[in-house]
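hey so u asked for the seq, here:
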Amino acid sequence: MNITILGIESSCDDTSASVIRNTLMLSNVIAGQAVHEAYGGVVPELASRAHQQNIIPVVTEALKQANVDKSELNAIAFTRGPGLMGSLLVGTSFAKGLAASLGIPMIEVNHLQAHVLAHFVKQTPGQTNQPEFPFLCLLVSGGNSQIIKVNNYDDMQVIGQTIDDAAGEAFDKCAKIMGLPYPGGPIINKLANEGNPDAFAFSKPHIPGYNYSFSGLKTSFLYTLRDKLKEDASFIEKNKKDLCASLQATIINILMHKLAKAAKELNINEIAIAGGVSANTSLRDALHNYAKRYGWKIHIPPLAFTTDNAAMVAITGYYKYQKQEFSPMDAQPFSRTIIK
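ran it, structure tokens below
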């Protein structure tokens, strides 16, 4: 029996809809929101309004590209959280209305779990490069930095996470300090490719276990710029590429050090990355280098699956559908949680 799932993602500022039949992706449509660039970050009220404008066209286009009629859907999977409450309410409300009108079940999806399971979305029928259980997944984004031990599709354990800021947040806030536009992470990545990663040294935290911390790094970066600007008002402009390269190298070194520690101590060689920061080219290069050094089998998501997307929601819904894990109609979104 074929299982056809419509996935809806609206946790932040991207409205996305995807249709998956079994594990094969038939469509994955994403509408972004350029309105936030002028404010240097996502404005929740503007995000929820844009979702209301985008969700019907996006879902319609996803069904059209998949060549699937609404009557063929077995269930609707939606992101229940974590995320921005107003944005989540739009996606949740739409999923409820559509599911009720079609008489099919809803499936609630944890946004973080979905990022991990994006590795199991097949873009072609013969695709066989999915991770084998158990594997470690480094989930890095603007709001989360976690090391997750993945025992099965529905069995994940966070063994390490940031105790303050996330890696993506550190990228974006340091970019803002330098006067770079939002989102800063991709711009830092681009400038860093032309800079010297050893030009500047920034503070690295000493946190026990597999946990992360990036607040001290941000403070170190800020103080370095403050002191240098006293000597030369044009310091940032003159050293922008080296600053980006040094900052990026420090963040990646922090991330990879804990990941390697976990892999060694848990004796796991299947390693994956996920989340928005997994699009960073230097992080991907570092993962390849560590794989050669330690004999890891690595799994890097396609760029389309690094940012928020509904294909990861739909594939999570597919696995939950098989276990009949349906959501009640009175389910409410939540803004904060972790994988337990």
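DSSP finds nine helices and ten strands in the chain. The two ends are 31 Å apart (CA to CA).
lmk if thats what u needed
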